[in-house]
Amino acid sequence: MMDPSEVREQGGPNGTIDESQNVEQIRNILFGSQMRDYDGRFQRVEERLTREANELRSDVQKRLDALEAFMRGEGESMTHRLATEHAERSQAFEKVGRELGETARRLEEKINNLDNHAAKETREVRQHLLDQSKALSGEIKEKYDQLKAGLEQESQQIRGAMTGREALAEMLSEVSLRLKNEFRVPGSS
Questions:
Q1: How far apart are CA 49 and CA 33, in angstroms?
Q2: What confidence category does residue 179 fall into, taking pLDDT thresholds of 50, 70 and 90?
Q3: How far is Cα 176 from Cα 16, in angstroms, rounded to an integer?
Q4: How far apart are alpha carbons 88 and 78 in whole angstroms?
Q5: Which of 149, 124, 151 has its CA nearest to residue 47?
Q6: Among 158, 139, 163, which Cα is nearest to 46's?
Q7: Distance between CA 137 and CA 173 in Å, rounded?
Q8: How far is residue 79's CA from residue 85's CA, in Å, rounded to a whole number?
Q9: Contact, 7 vs 13, CB < 8 A?
Q10: How far apart are alpha carbons 53 and 143 in whole angstroms?
């Protein structure tokens, strides 16, 4: 009695070659290198996208860190400046207030103007920060959309090539059956 593995190696039980094995070998010969090439391309695209995403994330983080450090420094500087100026004005107010009431009134107006100016500068700095944040968000979205579009385009090209490969495999299978006179048209006796 024959071992089933020997039957597979030699063909069917009466010496014929198994069709599915033959078709599988033809597919492997025709498309094996292309599939490896596609796998390699997918891997390179994925690595490139990962690397670019990491670079983009790092770049955005650096920009945000620099912006945060700048804003923190500006805020501390402005706070220190305001505190220093406020202290100086208060001392001058006390001195001048004792001497002349009119000068005290003018000094109070200057302090109010300084506070208004500081508030205006703070609003401008906040608006500038908001504008930069929006610009960075826009740039990030644009980069993301570009990467996504590129990936979708490459995926479509690869899918198109894979669809052609399946049709070719079916055609070769049919040609093989016709050459063996084993092809049967559905619906015929």
A1: 24
A2: confident
A3: 14
A4: 15
A5: 151
A6: 158
A7: 53
A8: 10
A9: yes
A10: 9
